[in-house]
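Fold this sequence, please.
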Amino acid sequence: MPRSKPTWQHLSRSQVACCCSPKVSPTLRHPLPHFLSHWIPAWPSAFFLPIRRQYLKKIIAEYEALDMEMPCIRKFPRPPAARPLCLCLENPEMKHAEILAAIEAVIPNAFEAGLLRSIQFENINVICGTAGRKNRWLITVSDFRTRNQLLCSGLTLDENHFVLRRWDNLVMEDYRMHLRRSLARQRLLNTLSDSWEPWEEQSHFCG
């Protein structure tokens, strides 16, 4: 028996949405079958509302999950500059004198010898607008030998041993989280913006 010609009724909504997606360039999209070209401009926008609503719910759910995973993050106006001679100690409460004493217990007279350049307190809770996160002490040294020595030894304060980390590694972790949140937010805003566009302005792509 001869096979009947396909009609638009046999297509699933996902197939129709793929053909008609306004996000795809008309030059790159697969051409519409001839039996769809006469039907789609006449279809009401309500036909595609469930598809678009489902996609919008998916994007919102992904953003909410990301917001729960990373409730308070550090924001960056630009990529952070490298500081290869900077080490970081994460601890909630400490004083400059205690940090200096711990460093000089590993490297005697480090400050007088010029091996230690600075000790800087970084209040992460203020930067991120939150509470309960560990603040950071940034220890900048003068050469890679001193940096590697402190990385290997760590610091001992009040009989507690603390591991030092490279500041570049820590800040890049923060920066990646910032980029991930920013991209998710931009994706959500783009989806919300597209959902308000009238279907009449989009249907000409399908003609």
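The first strand starts at residue 86 and ends at 90. The domain at 86-167 is CATH 3.30.70 (Alpha-Beta Plaits).
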